[in-house]
Specification:
The chain is α/β, with parallel strands linked by helices and about 425 residues long. It has helices at about 5-25, 25-35, 60-65, 75-85, 95-110, 125-140, 155-160, 165, 185-190, 215-230, 280-285, 300-315, 320-340, 360-375, 400-425, and strands spanning about 40-45, 50, 55-60, 115-120, 140-145, 175-180, 195-200, 230-235, 260, 275-280, 345-350, 355-360, 375-380, 380, 385-390. Bound molecules: pyridoxal-5'-phosphate.
Length: about 425
């Protein structure tokens, strides 16, 4: 990049934006422009992303939970480069060592007796597979999930997600789905019946605005499912792999699901990789026809070696513990900030490095994200609750970087307060 002149770099930015407008997604292009994000990303390292001009941004969005081990972790990149030369994609007709190794590692690292994995390319695909497995095993039809929940945007995953605005234009969706309020055991008890195949929940709602379960909630849902013969699917696509201070968020609550979904951080922020994992007992139904559920590109060798190295890095660098410690520091400082801006910040909450800051006004959240972007810190609001700004940086973020985020946040909140006062005046 250093060989390109400033004019050439400027041209790259102009042309890219123009192509977004003309060929890709004009609405998104307008949104980025409105948010002062009028540059082109070029390179990543650790908790930072650099634009085409070499300007560094601290990334507190973290690809919505993709960059747990940091961007371009050298070990993951090296392993992927090596595999790239050898065999990036599978023949699909011979055994593949890397898929087998990754499946074994997931069985070892996940709680309870989760054992068999299916690999795919995204979170939504993992959810689709989990829903199908639940139906096939239970021979039941219905799914219960939570309002505000997010499981992806393919038809099945969308059907069990909990925000109408993303669902209505695509109706009719999957029949027999019902959403109940999160953290309401009574409503869950009422909704789950003898035709419920599964309850699907995020242990902590991410896109719903970082909503933590009450201490007894997940255990209560587990008991309801067991009592009524429904499966419990925990969607750890965003909360998994160290993000919340433990390898999986369900471990905070001592709850083991029947099926777990994973994606995002599993490919180490280098490649797309999703998975759903279940017990030997449940998986038996797939034995009748080994091609009952399949994916041409899912579980390809390149993604699998990225997954293997990512799991090793997470364990060897004790990233869940890093997330717990840094999260406690970050959350504490944010709570102190809330006291200085009680007119803007309603609540700060989170676990590990999955933190949400709820503002009183939706527009203030987008204003704040814009102010932060101008000061080169990337944050975003949560998809199903736009009043909540998320902080979801790579778990490798340094304390110095957290301090920069906090001082930037202070300046940006001051800016937002001035704008609100000006509009109000
Ligand atoms: N499940 C959860 C909990 C998610 O947060 C997401 C994405 O944000 C998904 C599923 C869908 O993942 P993907 O965008 O990879 O399809």
């Amino acid at each position: 990049m250093e060989t390109l002149s400033f004019e050439e770099k400027k041209k790259i930015v102009e042309e890219t934006i123009e192509k977004y407008m003309k060929y890709l997604n004009p609405g998104l292009a307008r949104l980025y422009k409105f948010a002062n994000l009028t540059t082109v990303e070029w390179r990543g390292a650790g908790a930072k992303v650099f634009d085409v001009f070499g300007e560094a941004y601290i990334d507190c969005v973290g690809g919505f939970g993709v960059f747990n081990v940091g961007r371009n972790h050298p070990r993951v990149v090296a392993r992927v480069m090596e595999q790239l030369q050898l065999l990036p994609l599978s023949s699909r007709t011979l055994f593949n060592k890397h898929q087998a190794d990754l499946a074994e590692m997931l069985a070892q690292v996940t709680p309870g007796n989760l054992q068999y994995s299916f690999f795919c390319n995204s979170g939504a695909e993992a959810v689709e597979g989990a829903l199908k497995l639940a139906r096939m095993y239970t021979k039941r039809k219905k799914f219960v999930s939570a309002l505000g929940g997010f499981h992806g945007k393919t038809f099945g995953a969308l059907s069990v997600s909990g925000r109408e605005v993303y669902k209505r234009p695509f109706e009719p969706l999957l029949p027999g789905t019902e959403q109940v309020p999160f953290n309401d055991l009574e409503a869950m008890e009422k909704a789950v019946d003898e035709d419920t195949a599964a309850v699907i929940l995020e242990p902590i709602q991410g896109e719903g605005g970082v909503i933590l379960p009450s201490p007894e909630y997940l255990q209560g849902v587990r008991e309801i499912c067991t009592k009524k013969g429904a499966l419990l699917i925990l969607d750890e696509v965003q909360t998994g792999l160290g993000r919340t201070g433990k390898m999986f968020a369900c471990e905070h609550y001592g709850v083991v699901p029947d099926i777990m979904t994973l994606a995002k951080g599993l490919g180490g922020g280098v490649l797309p990789l999703g998975a759903f994992i279940s017990t030997a007992e449940i998986w038996k139904v797939f034995e009748e026809n080994p091609l009952m559920h399949s994916s041409t590109l899912g579980g390809n060798p390149l993604s699998c070696v990225a997954g293997i190295e990512t799991l090793r890095v997470l364990q060897e660098e004790d990233m869940p513990a890093q997330a717990a410690e840094k999260g406690t520091y970050f959350l504490g400082r944010l709570k102190a900030l809330q006291e200085e801006f009680p007119d803007i910040i309603r609540e700060v909450r989170g676990l590990g490095l999955l933190i949400g800051m709820e503002l009183f006004v939706e527009d203030a959240a987008s204003l704040l994200a814009m102010e932060m972007a101008q000061r080169k810190v990337l944050v975003a609001y949560t998809l199903n609750n736009p009043k909540v700004i998320r902080f979801e940086p790579p778990l490798t973020i340094t304390y110095e970087e957290i301090d920069v985020v906090l001082s930037t946040l202070y300046e940006s909140l001051t800016g937002v307060r001035a704008i609100i006062q000006e509009i109000g005046a």
